[in-house]
Automatic annotation (TrEMBL):
E.C. number(s) listed in UniProt: 3.1.-.-
Record protein name field: DNA double-strand break repair protein Mre11
Subunit field text: Homodimer. Forms a heterotetramer composed of two Mre11 subunits and two Rad50 subunits.
Regulation: Nuclease activity is regulated by Rad50.
Biased composition (Acidic residues): 389-417, 425-435
Domain of life: Archaea
Keyword Nuclease (UniProt): yes
Source organism (scientific name): Halorubrum salipaludis
Domain Calcineurin-like phosphoesterase: residue ranges: 3-183
């Protein structure tokens, strides 16, 4: 029997709503999963991608993640992982660094055996490159086989990957597919194989209303009755509360009615998201947000969804304006070089006085690298050049109105992120086939 924790989309480093407290929440949620793994003495932790939210995580996020992984390593529990679309770099992956430190195993087309189960990996692969995949995995002699992958697979929401095709063309008969990218937890049986998402470990968008958690997956060759089985159980995480307030205003009602709706909830240290609808009087979002924080909320955001009289009818949002920027960037289909510039201009970690020099240096690095000129080719509009995990796509329906998130419902209307550089099946890629982002060595 093999028991593993299946998690993913931890998005460590995400300063949601520009809040350092929320940034710490994402690391704390990942740490809670690892604590449960140690306490439960599982055989391995399997991470299905998007460990980090950004492809250039800050030092505090890196050191915090290393500290968490060291605890897991000290307990003798392996950390098996693949690369998601939020983590991609040109010269290497942070996962490779953790592997060199002896803290992780990057899964690929060769089996990594834990107990009686062989684990394989398939990194995030853009839709435009999937026709080249041959799903050639090396043979194994374990009782079970599981494929860990990052992408939007059928039959779940926003799917763009044919699960039956993957299973039919793979050299290995998989008993389970342990997936990441879709922030909504779910499981289904496809062609006799269990396919499951654990969901994100923290709410990365306003659309992620259900509680967060992970999967406990058991591969049991000695199940009752003598039948082999794969058992998937959902485990909850105690994460920061989100309070969703609906204020439907009738004619003549206004801010007082909204405050009353807010007052009916326990707001202590919560993220409070207020939706205003109906035909009542105008409401000043800033005043309601201040009221909510005075009542104990950590963060408050008010979205007025009522239509206003203009030349065209619009849905007014007073949530984080970063959402509108992210949505527009994804629609533009910018090249990787342009995304690098866009990131430098908007990054809150780069002082204004250093922006010009940072942009100049990044462009010069790409121009000097003759193998990287493909980075100046336009991307596919709508997110192909950036991160568009299911969380991200799901968030596009709500985040531009209520949240600061991709990925990937973030998911997430996350910042446009790079694509994974490899397909996880062991095929070598040249620099002009990668996403053209800077290497870890350049970062450091």
């Amino acid at each position: 029997m093999t028991r593993v924790i299946h998690t993913g989309d931890t998005h460590v480093g995400y300063a949601q709503y520009h809040s350092p407290v929320r940034r710490q929440d994402f690391l704390d949620a990942f740490a809670a999963v690892i604590d449960d793994a140690i306490d439960g003495e599982v055989d391995a932790v399997v991470h299905a991608g998007d460990l980090f939210h950004d492809r250039r995580p800050e030092l505090d996020d890196l050191m915090g993640t290393i500290s968490v992984l060291r605890r897991l390593d000290d307990a003798g529990i392996p950390f098996l992982a693949v690369v998601g679309n939020h983590e991609s770099t040109r010269g290497g992956q942070w996962l490779d660094l953790f592997e060199r430190l002896g803290l992780a195993t990057r899964l690929d087309d060769e089996p990594t055996v834990v107990g009686d189960t062989s684990f394989y990996g398939l990194d995030h692969v853009p839709v435009s490159r999937r026709d080249d995949l041959d799903y050639a995995f090396a043979e194994h002699d374990a009782e079970y086989a599981a494929l860990v992958a990052h992408g939007l697979f059928e039959p779940f929401g926003y799917a763009d990957w044919d699960t039956e095709e993957v299973l039919a063309e793979s050299d290995v008969a998989f008993d389970a597919m342990l997936l990441g990218d879709n922030h909504t937890p779910d499981s289904a049986e496809v062609a006799g194989t269990w396919v499951t998402y654990p969901g994100s470990t923290e709410r990365a968008s306003a659309s992620e209303r259900e509680g967060r958690g992970y999967n406990l997956v058991t591969f049991d060759a000695d199940a009752a009755g003598g039948d082999d089985r794969v058992e998937i159980r959902r485990r909850a995480l105690d994460t920061r509360p989100f309070v969703f307030v609906e204020a439907d205003l009738r004619e003549g009602e206004g801010a007082a009615r909204v405050r009353e709706a807010v007052r009916q909830h326990d707001l202590d240290d919560a993220v409070v998201l207020v939706d205003v609808t109906g035909e009542g009087d105008p409401v000043t979002p800033a005043a309601i947000e201040e009221f909510a924080t005075d009542q104990g909320a950590l963060i408050a955001r008010v979205t007025d969804r009522r239509e206003v009289e203009t030349d065209a009818e619009v849905d007014v949002s007073f949530a984080d304006p970063e959402d509108a920027v992210r949505e527009r960037v994804e629609e533009m289909g910018l090249s990787e070089a342009a995304l690098d510039v866009e990131e430098a201009v908007r990054a809150d970690t780069i002082p204004d006085t250093n922006v010009r020099e940072t942009v100049k240096r990044r462009i010069e690095e790409r121009v000097d690298d003759l193998d990287d000129l493909g980075a100046f080719d336009p991307g596919e509009a709508g997110g192909a050049a950036g991160g568009d995990d299911a969380g991200d796509r799901e968030a596009e329906e709500t985040e531009s109105e209520a949240d600061d998130d991709s990925e990937s419902g973030g998911a997430d209307d996350e910042v446009a992120d790079g694509e994974a550089t490899g397909d996880g099946t062991g095929d070598e890629t040249t620099d002009d086939e990668t996403d053209g982002q800077v290497s870890m060595e350049d970062y450091l």
